[in-house]
Amino acid sequence: TPIGHQFSPYDSNGGSILAIAGPDFCVVAGDTRQSTGYSIQTRYKPKVFRLNDVATLATNGFSADAEALVDKVKQRLVFYRHNHGTHMSLNAIARMISTMLYGKRFFPYYVYNILGGVDEEGKGAVYSFDPVGSYERETCRAAGAAQSLLQPFLDNQIMYKNQQPTPGRPIPAPGTYDVATVLRITMDSFTSATERHIEVGDGLEMFIVRTAPAA
Amino acid sequence: MSIMEYNGGSVVAMKGKNCVAIATDTRLGSQALTVACNFDKVFPVTEKTYIGLAGLGSDVATLKSKFRYRMKIYEMKEERTMEPETFAHLVSSTLYERRFGPYFVEPVIAGISSSGDPFIAGADLIGCLNFAKDVVVAGTASDKLYGMAEGLWEPDMDEDQLFECISQSLLGALERDALSGWGAIVRVITPTKVIERTLKARMD
After folding, report:
1. Which end of chain B is more exposed for a tag (fewer CB within 10 A), N or C?
2. What is the ipTM of this complex?
């Protein structure tokens, strides 16, 4: 009997990422477990990367593609600095990542990206992408294995969905929390996801992108 | 397409201090098409025990009748009402009876025992029981419900806190599930009364 062999260029490496925008900061977080199937490859593999003073990129999906993409994004940021003498703004990085992803439209980077940072007005910003470059600016976004566990919780705790004001407890506008509160919600989200999802756990790495305090 | 997702719908149950709650959405669909928005998936089996059935709509209706029949027979023979834990085992054996041609449902049981203890349990479609001490979820929004409940639930909530917790958990999960929603009903069961409330939910 003939035996068929087929090479698959993709894998799924588990994990989850999340980003939440505040008034003048952004929290970008990801767990540090990397797995394939039921096997843990490592308990510490960072998937959130500092790009410059205003931008941090969280990646999730196929880690080889993620690494290749992040390397190329960083390389483009160096070229930009050499050509223009300034760092690239967050909205420009977002558009660049979109075109880089779409450049591989017919052999995609199997990666979900969340770009977190501060915009040119100094406000916290989150940009989320699909693997072929469709993107959107949001207040908060979760992606990866535990996306379906994390996102409804963020809808409730960050966007105040299904909540109504009562006397003595007004509903604040989404995206007005302070850093400490956002970090607490981020940690609670990941401990919950770790309880109920086997691909999430081991470590949590959180980046805070902030505007420089006025001199 | 899995037959478990053909009609859509979700159920969740939670334990509190001297109370339990069980909640469901009211959608009945045919894949992407919503057919009805009054399909309550939670049924009383005794005065203080309720069963929620998420899954294939026809099997939900069949099992609802089957459990009603078996409860009546039990009550006549035994001259007493059934304990919720006993009922959980009845559900389990009823489902395992059809091991190789199962009913496509995930049952959720919530009740207060005769000694006043809160009780919840879940099962898979062939009757594997899950006696959780906190939360039980089922249906097409089950992963979203796990995320919400794991974040919002805490031990020893009173009936008002439990109502808020289960309502926010269900509503939050429904908004991120295309196959569940179109209304929601919450029942909070205490040793003395059952509080039934219809939630104002998004109708999309």
Report:
1. N
2. 0.95
